[in-house]
Hints:
Layout: H1 6-11, E1 27-33, E2 39-45, H2 47-50, E3 55-59, E4 84-85, E5 91-97, H3 100-107, E6 111-116, H4 123-128, E7 137-141, H5 144-147, E8 153-161, E9 173-178, E10 184-188, H6 193-204, E11 211-215, H7 230-243, E12 247-250, H8 253-259, E13 266-274, E14 280-292, H9 298-308, E15 317-326, H10 340-358, H11 362-368, H12 388-398, H13 401-414, E16 418-431, E17 440-447, E18 453-457, H14 466-478, E19 485-487, E20 490-491, H15 506-532, E21 541-544, E22 547-550, E23 553-558, H16 559-568, E24 574-580, E25 585-587, E26 592-594, E27 598-611, E28 617-626, H17 634-652, E29 684-689, H18 714-727, E30 736-737, H19 741-749
Parallel strand pairs: 1-12, 8-30, 10-11, 14-15, 18-19, 28-29
Antiparallel strand pairs: 1-5, 2-4, 2-6, 3-5, 7-15, 8-13, 9-10, 9-12, 11-20, 13-14, 16-27, 17-18, 17-24, 21-22, 22-23, 25-26, 27-28
Bound molecules: ligand MTE, hypoxanthine and dioxothiomolybdenum(VI) ion.
The site of ligand MTE has 21 residues, from helix 15 and helix 17.
Amino acid sequence: MKNTDACLHVRGESVFIDDRLVPEGTLYAAVLSSPVPHAKIIEFDISKAKSVEGVEGIFTADDIPGVNQIGNIIKDEVLFADEEVHYIGQPIAIVVSKSDVISHKTINEIKIEFVKFTPVFDPRESYKKGQLITPTRTFSLGDVDNEWKKCDLLIEGTVESGGQEHIYMETQGALAYPSEDGTIKIISSTQAPTAVQRIAANVLGLPMNKIEVDVLRIGGGFGGKEDQAVPWAVMTALASFKLKKPVKLVLHRKEDIIMTGKRHSYSSDYKMGLSKGGKILAYEVTFYQNAGAAADLSTAIMERSLFHATNSYYIPNAKITCISCKTNLPPNTAFRGFGAPQALFVMESAIYKAADKLGINPSVLQEKNLIKDGDEFTYGMILKNSTARKCWQTAEKHYSIEKLYKDVKEFNSKNKIFKKGISMMPICFGISFTNTMLNQASALVHVYTDGSVSVSTAAVEMGQGVNTKIRQVASEVFSININRIRVESTNTSRVSNTSPTAASTGADLNGGATRIACMNILERLKNFVSDKHKNQNLKTVEIMDEVVYLNGKKTGLKWDELINEAYTNRISLSAQAHYATPDIYFDKKKEKGEPFAYHVFGVAVTEVTLDCLKGIYEIDSVKIVHDAGKSFNRLIDLGQMEGGVVQGIGWATIEELMYAKDGKLLTDSFSTYKIPDIYFAPFEIKVHFLENKNTQVGIFNSKAIGEPPFLYGIGTYFALTKAMKEFRPDLKEKFSIPLTPEKVLLALYEKP
Ligand code: MTE
Ligand code: HPA
Ligand code: MOS
């Protein structure tokens, strides 16, 4: 079935923050943010700004009744800068007035002066200065130091990957209303309603039950609203609390790009040792993560880089280190893949280089080292139900890889200016929040007397189709038409203590809770029917396709009649349920455990054509075999695959963040920051879902789909590098993402 939101989206009827009808008297906030990367504030004067016609309030750190602290994992981030600023775009104050225009104009009337300090933007430099976000962590398996001497081939290198701007369609924003008794309701574009609620409560000095957060849907998050929807929501809550009026704040696109954090850029050093036969015997890597000016989610992202550093390979001796470095950039944050893409790119770069040394295709090394059942990950988990090899073999057959290589070879031999390249990109992604605690969710289900059903969960609909999947769960458990079921907004008063909708776990966790709640109601309904037929030798009661069956025989009793009767007999038609992923744990002292419910595998075959005169390229095709378990909703899963792949390709190729020397972001608009459009997207994306219906994994035997496809985008980098090498056999690969056409051209004609 279709994503049930599709019709609303296409008609423009979906309601995002800026589409809401606001109450009379709503005020508009605009943010004054730092124009300098690191400085002390020595003068701050709002007297002129305050007297501007229409301005109702200006709020700074001094106006906070609770604490000026919004750090989530580590308490190292203020809502408003007080004495010092640490990055360009750091909020200092908000102006609240009758209109968005007045508020934005008035920002310029605030007088502010700084004494500048020397900023640091490079993670290795900040590491040398000892400016770390958190102590460094290392995962290890076997003994690399002992293994090097047993290796026939040793390679070393440095790998760079750039950041990435989220470009969710709906910019960050929130709307807060005061209610009676000092309570506030916040409508927020967030993936984490409870984080907004908790932090707003702390900043306002209120208990959490005085803050209600509601999220109907968000116009994309991609991780960018897991932590970073908080400041804007809290600012509206603060102003609304102080002024006792509704306050709205929606960032303009440019403000959003400048003020919010991005995917972390990484700079990494690796060493790899192989046997003559191409077995990877040892791998050591150090990731320097550019965290920006505060922790945000960096520590969790660092953890996922550690988990996924060996991708889908078994490497018996490995030492993986991640260093989270503090720099004067906006705090970097979650972005689809959550540290895994950066780690996988280093692994694949090492394999490419090793293959180059051995004079073989990287795919030979990739295949030889694929992880299988019984192999151990660096974090101690023994792999079960691996489909890494099955995906690989299916891809080879399904997409006639041998012929593909032959065709490309022939093309390249016939063309001087145009060159083609192909790559294989296997992936492995662990499903569950790496922080075990977060792997829980709740649902609240009501059946109304007309037989219609209302479901509330912790899941936030951000375009990924989780609401449709939740409807499918309720429809399946009750065996009723999906049109009877509505999924409500995500609301902290209805469903409490929500984990963010992230880590691709939305459907597994919230679908899991919904399933239990529906089963509880179903059980009561069945018992009710059994009791009614107490003395009639009744063995089974079932509901199938909205009709009650007794002892396997169809009755005349329909769903809505049953519900009505149950209500009349005072049977509860509501249930609340909680789901927690079973059997996962992680011991941070030993850095060992079983942190994931399961792993997602797959492989992508990418073919590109490079114009070696201009450096521009086309992505001919990305052909994927992907293990989605028993795909829960093929159309939605296909959409996630395609969107993820294209977003991953954008990161690997054209999305380039460029900064001036003083740290000012130069690519702060769509004219300078290019994301893939329909012309740039692969000409063809083929997805073959692996037939894998037997393993018990996620909700209804499906596997989470949200983030893993992003990783396939890395394959485009290697396909392009292959094509470049065809044109210039002495090419010096730089292993640096993004590989923009400009960089391609420079590398093709670089003096030897
Ligand atoms: N798809 C759309 N359309 N919009 C989004 O913001 N976010 C991605 C992915 N797919 C996103 C998306 C990210 S980062 C995650 S973690 C998952 O969706 C979250 O949703 P899920 O857990 O329900 O898969
Ligand atoms: N993935 C995504 N988001 C998260 C995670 C994770 O493992 N942990 C905390 N937030
Ligand atoms: Mo996704 S980066 O876990 O929101």
